[in-house]
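For concreteness, we quote verbatim a single protein encoded this way:
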Amino acid sequence: MHSGSRTKKSKDRNDDESRHADPGAGSDAEIEAARNADSPNPRILIVEDVASLREALRMYLEFYGYTVASAGSFDDALESASKRPPDVAVCDRQLGEERDGIDVARALQRLHGAQLVFVSATSMSELRAQTTDLDVTAYLKKPVLPRRIAAAVRLATGNQGVRS
């Protein structure tokens, strides 16, 4: 179960763009500071159907000290989360199956209170419109640099650092 230390994102900002901070604004120094901070390792679940992308992102986030699990489908994601509930889910929008990343995100947030980061090659405005019922920390357009994803994860954990 998750601790109650997370703060809710403000829902009353002026527009949809300002609702979400730019996770790419984090400098390399900020990422390094997060890597070296002394705090528990947040659990991250990567949901991406392309195995090479999933593996690369898993290794990148593990390098920064996160505890990372990965899944390539809706069913795999829910099975993984049932064993080890994630603090943050990084979800690809399209999973190449009937149930997509939005379905995964809804289930993970409802069942486990996971914070959400979406990564997608599809229209961001369409994705935002389809996820208004979710508390999403960041929407990132593919292709995206791994350090932007790491910054979004850090933002989703409330700037909680990881052990080096």
